Amino acid sequence: MTLFPQCSWPPYRQAASLLLVSMLLWSPAFHSLHAGELRIERMFGPEIKTGPYKHPARIEALANGDLYAVYYGGQGEYAVDTGVFGSRLKQGSRKWTTPTRIAGDPFRSLGNAVVWQSPDGWVWLFYVVRYGDTWSTSRVQAKVSRDNARTWSDAFPLVNDEGMMVCNRPIVLSNGDYLLPLYYETGHDTESVGPESSGLFLRYDVKKKEWKQTGRIRSATGNIQPAVVELRENLLVAYCRRGGNYEPTTNGWIIRAESHDGGSTWSDGVNSPFPNPNASVDFIRLRSGNLLLVFNDSMNDRTPLTVALSADNDRNWPWKRNIAEGPYDYAYPLAVQTADGKIHLIFTSHERTVVNRAVFDEDWIKQGGPVKSWLPK
Question: Is the pTM of this model over 0.85?
Answer without folding.
Answer: yes
